[in-house]
Design brief:
Radius of gyration: 14 Å
Helix content: 10-25%
Structural class: alpha+beta
Shape: globular
Largest sheet: 4 strands, mixed
Mean pLDDT: 92
CATH topology: Nucleoside Triphosphate Pyrophosphohydrolase
Strand content: 25-35%
Strand order of the largest sheet: 4-1-6-5
Order of helices and strands: EEEEHEEEHH
Low-confidence stretches: none
Number of strands: 7
CATH class: Alpha Beta
Distance between the termini: 30 Å
Oligomer: single chain
CATH superfamily: Nucleoside Triphosphate Pyrophosphohydrolase
CATH architecture: Alpha-Beta Complex
Number of domains: 1
Amino acid sequence: MIKSAKVIIYDNNNKILLLTRSDTHPKYALHLDLPGGIVEENESNEFAIKRECDEEIGVSINIEDLRLVKKVRLPSISRNLFEIYLNHTPEIKLSWEHSEYSWTSEEEIKKMSTTKDFDPYFNMLIEYIKSK
């Protein structure tokens, strides 16, 4: 079974970090995204998020501050969505996987609709924010 984990990062203004996948990304090119990805063998969900944040956005996070908010388990994949609140707005250094980023309010995300064309994690984000 494939395990993956992504994180909703809130800054000190209660805004959420949204990434835009690069046009060369192999899946969901140019779609909105969250930091995270595949959990490697012998790696916890939390450590995978820490590793992916370092790689994708150049931000180091404390895994003890992560909170699991949604989990979807399918026959072939387990998707885990976490959140973390930071006491600052970090400087973002994007890897090749993403071309842009923005800090977005929950109100803006609540206006979005889920669609089968989105990355399943982005749909999870929208559903979670609307349920708060």
